[in-house]
Each structure stands twice: as structure tokens, then as C-alpha cells.
Amino acid sequence: MKLFIQIPCLNEEQTLPMVLETIPKEIPGIDEIHILVIDDGSTDRTVEVAREHGVRHFVRHRRNMGLARSFHDGIEYALSHGADIVVNTDGDNQYPQEMIGELVQPVIRGEAEIVVADRQTHTIEHFSPFKKAMQRFGSWVVNQAAGTDLPDAASGFRAYSKYSLIRLNIVTRFSYCMETIIQAGNKRLAITSIPVRTNPKTRESRLFKNIWQHMRESGLAILRAYFMYKPYVFFATLGVLFAVAGAVPFIRYLVLVWMQAPGSYVQSLLLGVLLFVGALLSFAMGAIADLTRITRSLQEDSLELDKLDRYGHTRNWVTLPAKPEHDTTAA
């Protein structure tokens, strides 16, 4: 079994040696361990430092393209070089590389297709109380959208099986973390987590300028992924709200007519009609969005077959031996 450990990097010459020196050389159940550095437009000696530490696999971007694209390109490289499992870690040494062996074991044993490291964010000293609360809330939202039960959905320290990577498709340009969990949950991939302790902070995040940007971009990624798989839930909810709101002025109109109250009630009637039209449009858009979801699902099936042709079948595809012609064994 071949393991690729990919490390997205942007100017990590100071911290990359610590990452590379703590990656296990041997892991039970793994025959080959390969390290892949994705250089996302670094202007320092990141690549030279990696080569000095024996790294032979590289994906290089001429300019910074972001974490999601780096993850995507790294996965394409790893799969094209025969990876059975891919572990994603970071170049800033925030994750304990010593735990990679534990991280891949559920995949090796066939218990899970994706393993997410739980950073136990409530124990991280440099996280403010507000950030800890937002991490918990974000994980709760992702779990609701994906039907999972992960304590740390934002963690980027993960192990993916080849089968899961063939089935997943990265759409967002910000961060793949939330999107892949929602996709995996809705595609019924087995996901689990293991607890880890993070290393001391080495630098500020380069993915976002502040927590508000992170919350905004993560929220948009979650909504986009959710709408991809359950658009009818959103539009049906919107349609029901419009319908209930539209019923109120209609009821008011009928009550006033029954009581023969003086004055004109046309305003209530018009408002009710407008709200009911909004409800009908919402239900219609929900039907169209659901048809679009079905079309996208069929296209993803075609893309999966294309990936299988390119990267080969996975262990999830099993061919049973043919039954002998003269087999007299009782059923």
C-alpha cells in the first residue's frame, strides 16, 4: 500500500524542516511512504529546503493559487503516481506528524474512507474563547449539513483513501475542509476522527487576514456545498415561509369582510397575492434546482468513471471468483 503525505507550502522555509523531520519513516500496513510538497508560489527557499531533506515529489505554482487549488493539484499528482492513501498536513508544523501512523489506521483496516484529526480546539491556548466557540459552532453547522458527527470539521490534518478522493470534487477556491466533509457525508462515505494535540503556534495564518474573513469565507463554502446537495430544502423552506406570511393578510381580509368593517381591504388582498406568488416561485425554483442536482449527480458519476480509468480501481471494487461449473455445494 502506497501512502503520499502532501504538504501545501507558501514560504515555509523556517518551519518545513520541523515538519519533514517528524514524518514517520515506517508505518504498519504501509509499504511505501512518499512526501509531496505543493509549492503555492513561494518566494523563499521552501523548495530548496525540501530537496535538502530528501523530498523528490513537487507540484509548483508560478503564483499563489490558494489552499483549495493546492489540495486539488496535490491529490491529482498523488493519484497519478499510484497513491492508495493521501494524508494532508500543513507546512507550518501546527499538526503532529508523529500521529500520521495512527491517522491512517482506520483507512488501512477498512473502517473509514476519511479520517479527520480532532485538534481538541478547547485545549489550544492561543485560541481565544470567541474563536473556540466559533470552531464548535462551525463544526455543528457542517455536521448538520453533512449528517456527520465530527468534533473538529475545520481540521486540515486528514487521511483520505483513494476511493474517497475519486468520489470527491473540489469546487471552492478558499478552503477544501468544510466542502469535502459535506460532500463526503452526502455521498455516504465513512468518516471518523481521532484526537490529536497540536504543536505550539509558529506564525499567523496565511489563509485569511482575520477571523471575520475566515467566518465569511467558510460560511459561503458551507452554504454552497449544502445547496449543491439539498437545494430543495432551502427553497421549500422559503416557499413555506412565503405561504404562511401570505395567509395572514388573506385571513385579515376575510375577517374584515365578514365583520363588514368600513374601509378598503384591497391592500391586504394584494399583499397576500404577492406573497403567494413568491411561494409558488420558490417551489418552482426548488424543483428546477433539484433537477439540476440530479444532472450534476449523473455528471459526477461519469467523472468518477473517468477517474477510475485514469487512476485504476480501488479496493472497494471487488470481483468475486466465478463459481465452478460442476460445483455441487449446497446453497
CATH homologous superfamily grouping of the largest domain = Spore Coat Polysaccharide Biosynthesis Protein SpsA, Chain A
Please give the radius of gyration in angstroms: 26 Å
How is the largest sheet built, in terms of strand order? 3-2-1-4-6-5-7
CATH topology of the largest domain: Spore Coat Polysaccharide Biosynthesis Protein SpsA, Chain A
| Oligomeric state | single chain
Number of strands: 7
Question: How many independent structural domains?
Answer: 2
Provide the low-confidence segments as ranges: 318-331
Protein name: Glycosyltransferase family 2 protein
Family: Belongs to the glycosyltransferase 2 family.
Keywords: Membrane, Transferase, Transmembrane, Transmembrane helix
Domain Glycosyltransferase 2-like: 7-165
Q: Explain this structure to me?
A:
- The protein is of the alpha/beta class.
- The protein folds into 2 domains: about 1-225, Alpha-Beta Complex (Spore Coat Polysaccharide Biosynthesis Protein SpsA, Chain A); about 230-310.
- It has 10 helices and 7 strands.
- The chain has helices spanning about 15-20, 45-50, 65-80, 100-110, 130-145, 160-165, 175-185, 210-230, 230-260, 265-310, and strands at about 1-10, 30-40, 55-60, 85-90, 115-120, 160, 190-195.
- It has a 7-stranded mixed sheet with strand order 3-2-1-4-6-5-7, with helices on both faces.
- The longest helix has about 45 residues, at about 265-310.
- It is elongated, with a radius of gyration of 26 Å.
- The two termini are about 35 Å apart.
- About 35% of the residues are buried.
- The model is unreliable at about 320-330 (pLDDT under 50).
- Pfam families: Glycos_transf_2 (PF00535).
- InterPro entries: Glyco_trans_2-like (IPR001173), Glycosyltransferase_2 (IPR050256), Nucleotide-diphossugar_trans (IPR029044).
